[in-house]
Amino acid sequence: MTPDYAYGMWVIAAFNVGLFLFFFLSFLPPKGYVEWRNLGVVAAFLVALFSEMYGFPLTIYLLTGWLGDAYPVLQPFNHKFGHLWVVAFGGSDLAWALVMGASLILMVAGYILLSRGWRQVHGARGQLITDGLYTFVRHPQYTGLFLVIVGFLVQWPTLLTVLMAPILVYAYVKLAFSEERHMLGQFGDAYREYRRRVPAFIPPVKQWKAFLSAQAPNANRSHI
C-alpha cells in the first residue's frame, strides 16, 4: 500500500452501494417480480461501480497490462489517474474538473426528476396524470434513472458498468411499456391519445429546461 494507492476502501464502497440503493428504493419502490428483478440489476450495477471506484480498479488493472508502456500516466492506481475519461483526455486537472462537473449535472438532473416524479405519482391517487412532468414525457422517473446511469458512466466508467448499463436501460424500458399496457386497459382512449402526443422518455431538446424545472402540481391524478 502506497500513498498513491487510493483503493481497498471496501467499507466506503459498501456504504455507497447501500446509500444509492436506498434512494432507488425510495423513488422507484418495486411492486412485483419484474420490478424486484430490475432492482437486482441496479444493485449489481452499483456493486460493480463502487467496487472499482473504491475497492479495486479492475478496469485500470486490465488496461495497464494491455497498453503497457503506452499507458499515458505513471500513477494508475490513485483516483485521478485511475479514471478512464481523465486519462483519455491527457490527465489534466481541467479534464478532471470537466468530467466531474458533467457527471454531477447529469446525476442532479436525474435525482430531480426521480423525486418530483415520485411526489406527483403519490399525490395523484390512481388517476391519469397529463400535467407537470408528464406534460413532457410519459415516464419522467425512468428518464431520471437513465440520467443517473449516464452520470455514473461519465463519473467512473468501468468495463462491467459499460456492459451492464444497456441491460439496465432495456429492463426499465421494457417495464415502462408493460405498465403502458396496464394504463391502456384502465384508461382506454384517454391514455391512447396521451401516448400518441407525448414521448415516452426524451422530450424535444428545446423543452429540456422547462422539463427539469417543472414542479409537480398538487393534483389528484396519477400515472406511473
Task: Characterize the structure shown.
The structure is a single chain. The chain has one domain (10-213): Up-down Bundle (Four Helix Bundle (Hemerythrin (Met), subunit A)). Mean pLDDT is 84; it is low at 219-224. The chain is built from 9 helices and no strands. The termini are far apart. It has 224 residues and is mainly α.
Tally of DSSP β-strands = 0
Tell me the radius of gyration: 20 Å
What CATH architecture label applies? Up-down Bundle
Structural class: mainly alpha
CATH topology grouping: Four Helix Bundle (Hemerythrin (Met), subunit A)
What value does the average pLDDT take?
A: 84
* Low-pLDDT residue spans: 219-224
Give the N-terminus to C-terminus distance in angstroms. Answer: 49 Å
Number of domains: 1
Number of helices: 9
Helix content: 55-70%
N-to-C series of helices and strands: HHHHHHHHH
How much of the sequence lies in strands comes to under 5%
* Most strands sheet: none
The CATH class, by name, is: Mainly Alpha
Overall spatial form:
elongated
